[in-house]
Amino acid sequence: MIEAVGLTKRYGAKTAVYNLSFQVRPGAVTGFLGPNGSGKSTTMRMILGLDAPSDGHVTVNGLPYRRLPNAPRQVGALLDAKAIHGGRSAYNHLLCLAQLSGIPRRRVDEVLGVVGLHEVARKRSKGFSLGMGQRLGIAAALLGDPQVLLFDEPVNGLDPEGIRWIRTLMKRLAAEGRTVFVSSHLMSEMALTADHLIVIGRGQLLADMSVKDFIAHNSADFARVRTPDGEPEQREKLTAALGEAGAAVLPEQDGTLRVTGLPLPRISDLAHGAGVRLWELSPHTASLEEAYMRMTQGAVDYRSTEDQRAGLLGPAGQGQPNPYAAPPGAVPGAAGGAAGWPPPHGAAPAHPYAPPAPGGPGQPNPYAVPPQNPQASPQAPSQAQPQGWQPPPAAPQVPQQAAAPAAPAAPPAPAPADLTKRDNEDAR
User: Fold this and answer.
1) Is residue 160 a part of any domain in this protein?
2) If you average pLDDT over residues 264-285, what whole number do you get?
3) Under a CB-based contact definition with an 8 Å cutoff, are residues 283 and 221 in contact?
4) What is the CATH number of the domain that holds 232?
5) Number of helices (H) and strands (E), helices first, in the chain?
């Protein structure tokens, strides 16, 4: 059992927890609820001896945590799933914890099987996903087979199968007579898992009761009544009859009536007496989320506001232009539009850097085969030339002027052999 008496914690001028008293009894799953900044994590740290209370005290099985003999064998906790050396494997991490607490080695394999990490037991934890890290943290909490268990956001990062598994696990642990204390922001999970609730706001206790009583104290049940559509006179007749009987009737936007102050059988009798046919008569019970929001609406410190988008909307209420949209007017037939944009349905858009089609408008293709010399002998068109290519017209012939008389030709140069013969004659 966990018992807090007058628990208070101050950090300088800020009071995180003030005069908090409660009991967490064995045999039930106790949910610990509260808005962000309400002091839930600080309270759990004080239970585990990680923070010293400024005033008051908290005990586990009658003793402060630091005075418990071999505390890991009596209390298991998951506060931060990332509090693990990333270079260690899942197996070695649990083995170190087991050896520090005198827990047999075989227990490491048992808890790895419980949380479903057998296949990755030898892998380093730094490569684990958020959900796998949560499973490893839960395995560390179960390692000593403790009678008291504390979980802070245990379903964070788990997939639907994992959420269902941890829900079943906590219920089973409580059914074995253990003390299970769970902090969570998921109201739907708390409604399915918790038997008892402790709700705090701004460090102070707001509620300490069962889930059923909490919903009943913080919500108003009502009956939903629907009369035939298209017959407003019947709805008006029923509204008058219910009002005379002392009920409060509130019309809904969908045409139904919200009725409070009368049980369903009495509403049915009044409708029958007034000759009104009913298409729907159903009870409505508030959910845990609705009851929680109603209780804690005055203890929320961080509230969101509407996004006004100041300066982001144009004068006509339009947002910033799409930088990837086609330019304005680029629609066939539009004024100033580029013809052929957007391309027809099923046709690929033209490549922006492709050369223009043969024979089409635009600059000449710089990579086309140059035209052949018109004075050369005609040849067959090249395969690289586009179909329909015609050589340009030949340039007009310029009449040649009369050639000047040719100068006398120079004597031919002597051959190398003649030069040698001439040199020999000169030498003689």
Assistant:
1) yes
2) 92
3) yes
4) 3.30.70.790
5) 11, 13
CA dihedral sign, ordered 61, 64, 67, 69? positive
Q: How many domains in the chain? A: 2
Contact status, residue 185 vs residue 296, Cβ threshold 8 Å: no
Instruction: Judge whether residue 141 has pLDDT over 50.
Output: yes
Helix (H, G, I), strand (E, B) or coil at 269: helix
Q: What is the mean pLDDT of residues 247-252?
A: 92
217 phi and psi angles, rounded to 5 deg: -80, -20
First to last CA, the chain: 139
Amino acid symbol at 241: A
CATH of the domain at 146: 3.40.50.300
Q: Is residue 314 part of a domain?
A: no
Q: Residue 293: in which H helix or E strand, if any?
A: helix 288-296
* Beta bridge mates, 67: none
* Residues 6 or more apart in contact with residue 235 via CB below 8 angstroms: 227, 251, 255, 257
Please tell me the distance from the alpha carbon of residue 313 to that of residue 319, in angstroms, as a whole number. 5
Domain of residue 51: give its range: 2-213
Write phi, then psi, for 35 (nearest 5 degrees). -65, 170
Take residue 283 and report the two structure tokens written for it: 């009870």
Instruction: Write down the H helix ranges in 194-252.
Output: 211-217, 232-244
Is the predicted pLDDT of residue 412 greater than 90, yes or no?
Answer: no
